Amino acid sequence: MTGYMGSGKSVVGKALATKRGLPFLDLDEEIGKREGLGVSEIFASKGEIYFRRKETEVLKELLEQEEQFVLALGGGTPCYGKNLQLIKDSTGATSIYLKTGLLQLKQRLLNEKDHRPLIKDLGTPEVLEDFIRKHLFERSFYYNQSDLVVETDERSISEIISEIIQKLN
């Protein structure tokens, strides 16, 4: 599952995993387990470059596993280094972009700012909106290379899951 932060990768990923009888993994949580720190703490103590290197390392390890699972990537994962190519080259992997609009993302992220290291210091809703707009513009090139693109605005989790399953079959 790929998409911007707040697009629902974890929520939809968990629901999809349950529906398909597969384990669910969150890349940020997997990195945190290996580091013994949360993502916010890694960013604060070791910096974003360190985090991105670990992210690539853990992503590669997970993609090499034989077991099937649903994986929620971080919002920036496919945009850094060779991560997108790692995903595309992985046998049996299907990337799914949860395409969520600017206003929906802004609304969700306003409520979650304190838990998101990249946006926690953005002052006003307008500044947050500009930040999201800029990132969406930069990242859409990567996101749109996913195998499946699923629009999420104004849709329930079950509707999104149904579309994904239909496209996977």
What would you note in describing this structure?
- The chain is mainly α and 169 residues long.
- Helix content is 54%, strand content 8%.
- A two-stranded parallel sheet has the order 1-2. The chain has a two-stranded parallel sheet with strand order 3-4.
- The protein is globular and about 45 Å long.
- The two termini are 17 Å apart.
- The mean pLDDT is 93.
Would you spell out the secondary-structure blueprint of this structure?
Blueprint: H1 9-20, E1 24-26, H2 27-35, H3 39-46, H4 48-63, E2 70-72, H5 83-89, E3 96-99, H6 102-110, H7 125-143, E4 148-151, H8 157-168
Parallel strand pairs: 1-2, 3-4
Report a brief summary of the structure.
This protein has 169 residues and is mainly alpha-helical. It has eight helices and four strands.
Tags for this entry?
169 residues, mainly alpha, two-stranded parallel sheet, 4 strands
How many helical stretches?
8
Tally of strands? 4
Structural class: mainly alpha
Order of helices and strands: HEHHHEHEHHEH
Q: DSSP strand (E) fraction?
A: 5-15%
Shape: globular
- Mean pLDDT, nearest integer? 93
Residues in helices, as a percent range: 40-55%
